[in-house]
Amino acid sequence: MATMNGTTNGHLPTKQRAAQFHPKDKSVHINEIPIPTIKPDEILVKVRAASLCHSDLMLFEPNEQGLVLGEGDPFTMGHEACGTVVEVGDEAKGFKKGDKLGWLPIVDCCFDCEECQIHNLYCERGESKVQGMTVDGYFQEYCAIKWRNAVRIPDDMDLDTCAPLFCAGCTAFNAVTDTVAELPDEPNSTWVAVIGCGGLGHLAIQYLKAYGYRVVGIDLSADALTEATASGADHVFNPKIDTDYIKRVREITGKGCHAAINVTNSVPAYSSTPQLLRMNGVLMVTGIPQSPLQFQAMDISMNRIRVRGSNNGTTPRLEKCVGFSHEHGIRPRVTQFKLDEFEEMLKLMESGKHKGRLGVLFD
Ligand SMILES: [Zn+2]
Ligand SMILES: [Zn+2]
């Protein structure tokens, strides 16, 4: 039975507040919506923290990726969060009330086909959707997630700050582990450039340092470079100020970096990345500009550079990311806002004048 303040005798409220994207006019509003009812393969989570990912801004921009984003009815934004289990569906094996969880955002895929083993956005049996991009995401107090996406967070990890692990963190971790797999096993004398030292980049730097690599951080923002240094980068450069940065990187590293992980959404930043690399260097494509990238075919055919890709991955990889982050004390830097300050947070993200990740901390 509902009480005056909307709570039921079963302790859960019936309504909640959510930061929702309105596709009609591409605006964001804080709306009151019902608490979701879970299906047998779902878990209801009380969100503790949700953070903003740069790709959330794709809702507001045109894209050439062929992605269908933000159509139809208003839906809750956000695809990066963590929280505590409040209700478990019958099929959600191995989870119980009170568990601390993080999770991935693709739903309505089968999780089992060949495509799902690489990335379940491309499931051939289901109709994959991204929570926070086309259906309700996590800038709301309670959300329903698929148990197949969920990973338990160790008790001694801080829920308030670990939300960024569940998109930026696992993307950075996968980019680093996919890069490391291509490099000689001598991290101490192996140089990796991280292009873009914001939300994703500052975590990529921490993972690389945990593996023992030498790191060069590159960003156009002074704040991001401060964060890069705090995250352990050996050298940092701002191409706007250090106009000879390519020459200097090549001097410091001998002949150029062994690998460069580009997490930016900037085509010009990608165009200059091959120059940072030595012969047969790895160019890891991680950030997603809205327009196609161009590289010299000869650079690729002659193996001057090796172009690879990485992304947020699948649940087994997320599990490894959480384990590694726990073991090595990886700390996402998050600036917290209240749900009511959502628009302010969005504007700050758009301005690029922020360090680390921006997020909402719920009560
Ligand atoms: Zn993301
Ligand atoms: Zn599938």
From TrEMBL:
GO MF, one example: alcohol dehydrogenase (NAD+) activity
PROSITE patterns attached to this UniProt entry: ADH_ZINC
Entry-linked InterPro entries: ADH-like_C (IPR013149), ADH-like_N (IPR013154), ADH_Zn_CS (IPR002328), ER (IPR020843), GroES-like_sf (IPR011032), NAD(P)-bd_dom_sf (IPR036291)
Source organism superkingdom: Eukaryota
Keyword Metal-binding: yes
Domain called Enoyl reductase (ER): residue spans: 24-360
Biased composition (Polar residues): 1-11
Keyword annotations of the record: Metal-binding, NAD, Oxidoreductase, Zinc
Cofactor: Zn(2+)
GO cellular component term of the entry, any: cytoplasm
Pfam families, per the entry: ADH_N, ADH_zinc_N
Region (Disordered): 1-22
Similarity-based family: Belongs to the zinc-containing alcohol dehydrogenase family.
Protein name, entry field: Enoyl reductase (ER) domain-containing protein
